[in-house]
Amino acid sequence: MKKRIFTSFILICLLLTMPACAAGTDQPNNAERLSVQNTGFTDVPADAWYAQAVEYCRENGLMAGTSDTTFAPEGTLTRAMLAAILYRMSGTPAVSAPPAFSDAETGAWYSDAVAWAAETGVISGYNSGTFGVNDPTTREQAVTILWRYAGSPDPGTALRFSDGDSVSSWAQAAIQWASAGDILEGMTANNHFDPQTNIKRGEVASMLYHYLSSNTSGQPEPAVGGKTLVAYFSATNTTRPLAEYAADILSADLYEIVPEDPYTDADLAYYTNGRADREQNDASARPAISGIVENMADYDVIFLGYPIWHGQAPRIISTFLESYDLTGKTIIPFCTSHSSGIGSSDTSLHSLASGANWLAGRRFAGGTTRSSMEDWISGLDLPEPETAVDTVTSATSKAAFNFETKSVTLNSGYEMPINGLGTYSLHGETCVSSVKSALSSGVRLIDTASAYGNEEEVGQAVREAMEELGLQREDIFVITKIYPGSEMANPEQSIQACLDRLDLGYVDMMLLHHPDRNDVKAYQAMEKFVEEGKIRSLGLSNWYVKELEEFLPQVSITPALVQNEIHPYYQENEVIPYIQDLGIVVQGWYPLGGRGHTGELLGDEVISSIAKAHGVSSAQVILRWNLQKGVVVIPGSSNPDHIKENTELYDFALTDEEMAQINALDRNEKHD
Ligand code: NAP
Hints:
Layout: H1 2-7, H2 30-35, H3 51-59, H4 79-89, H5 111-120, H6 139-149, H7 172-180, H8 201-214, E1 228-232, H9 239-250, E2 253-256, E3 258-259, H10 265-268, H11 275-281, E4 289-290, E5 301-307, H12 315-322, E6 330-336, H13 345-348, E7 357-358, E8 362-364, H14 370-379, E9 401-402, E10 407-409, E11 415-417, E12 421-422, H15 428-440, E13 445-447, H16 455-469, E14 477-482, H17 486-489, H18 491-502, E15 507-512, H19 519-531, E16 535-541, H20 545-551, E17 561-565, H21 575-580, E18 585-589, H22 598-602, H23 605-614, H24 618-628, E19 631-633, H25 640-645, H26 656-663
Parallel strand pairs: 1-2, 1-5, 5-6, 6-7, 6-8, 12-13, 13-14, 14-15, 15-16, 16-17, 17-18, 18-19
Antiparallel strand pairs: 3-4, 9-10, 10-11
Helix pairs in contact: 3-8, 4-5, 6-7, 9-14, 15-16, 16-18, 23-24
The structure holds NADP nicotinamide-adenine-dinucleotide phosphate.
NADP nicotinamide-adenine-dinucleotide phosphate binds next to helix 22 and helix 25.
């Protein structure tokens, strides 16, 4: 256990709200505490008692916000999330067996963490044989888990809370230890500890901050396997020092991507239609590079550094990626930017080296110190070279969109296209021809529902298209839903009726259409159909944070998808990251605002001007905006031209500024 204390500072990466990322090893001393700045989160007032802790956790990559502007300090933390945090803190050691709990899936984002937590005794499961994967963590549980992680140290002084009697016996030593070590600073009011209350995100940040402040052991150690290259492009010398730090820390080779035609100040001036502006607006631009990495085959791991230009990597990075066969190599992007985050600059590059194992990237401000770089590198979960290809998304709980295959791998293990066709209000021959038109245009995801009354037509269209287009059943992903009321009250019968109407052998995904008093029962029935192979993946529709918090602990199979209303006027910016951080894919319905509202949305001035700048339609901008937020789109249409247009989403990318402009259109205006 002692060793764990030392290694705890090596790798700290919370999976609460973010992909796996940096280690936070800067332990704040008193002087640093005073210097911590405003968090920038609108829901974390500068004078909040946990503000410093949130900022510390954010700065060190320990906890991200639930959106660009919010942290949700009142939000809760599941037991699986806490396991994942501590597992990473311990350096993600190999685990010998899959999690042995009935509610812990093998291959889920938390599997290794849960198995490790149980193996080491840091978090044991419940007597019922469950881990409580999706259960919120109470305050006494969280403190006890941290205490066990710390090696169950001597508790020190006696409990000093007025409600000490209500602390569970198994938690008393931990709470004594934490209170004696000031780890609970700020978490108690009126000398009350409230042991059974769920711990909040702000409190978790505070606990980690104080735990790390009080601990003086350990320095980060890079965890790199294989020969490493740090390749970077730096037009203004902002990225260069970071690349040099990285190469030094990693004992890696350093390679500068030098343009054949160097960039002048005039080239770099934004919004002048200068060279950088033009290149960034042209997805096909490939500025030539002077020189080449002769021994690229020798490298297993490549750190790729670049500045952010108009929200993306400079096009010379595309040139670099396309110049080599990077199959099987692990690539970790990092970028420098004064204001933007790494945004989609990271994921946009994946298709240029699709055979590589991309890890989540990190943005640094110019002037970042060597120790920050060291912290980040130390926290990375770099695979051994021989396992690199298999672990594309191992460093993140979020399911990553692959813009080359236009698909995402669900937590059920199945691949699902990220753009599809919605069939609400399509009936009869219109429905059949629309679905067939979509399949002819390359669409492979079709959304229907029992309530739409068109499953038979959808099934017919899919069967005919398979025949006519030479497609296999596995090529097409069909989603259907069962409805509240009598359908959910008699779920086995309703599910079988959907299967019969579709008549496609199996259904790729079935959703509960809305919450209902019988929703758990209905979902459990769907779970049985999964076991029988008649349904492949499960999901929910119209479920929000509160509903998910209540629902998830009651079911065995974590939903693979949540389908909710999402469009620029109703963005759900609080809900989307919450769902995604559970490893669940988000799909948006009414992407174009829904019938009766599309005119206003498609005619929106901001969206229209962005569309004009890219030479695409407003619909395409909205759909692309969704994809860049990690939201799957299922626009409805019976117009073959629209259907085709709605598939052409991959030859342009919205800049961070454009994404921000659309984000600013949110009106919380539900159209349903
Ligand atoms: P939508 O996709 O937001 O809008 C559909 C409307 O947009 C249609 O009038 C369509 O007209 C038009 N349109 C489509 N592509 C266009 C383009 N490129 N340019 C201009 N107009 C275009 O609304 P929706 O179909 O109602 O919602 C999408 C899907 O979400 C549904 O079909 C359904 O599968 C699902 N949904 C789920 C729920 C739920 O509770 N889970 C609720 C509602 C909807 P044309 O036919 O002329 O192209």
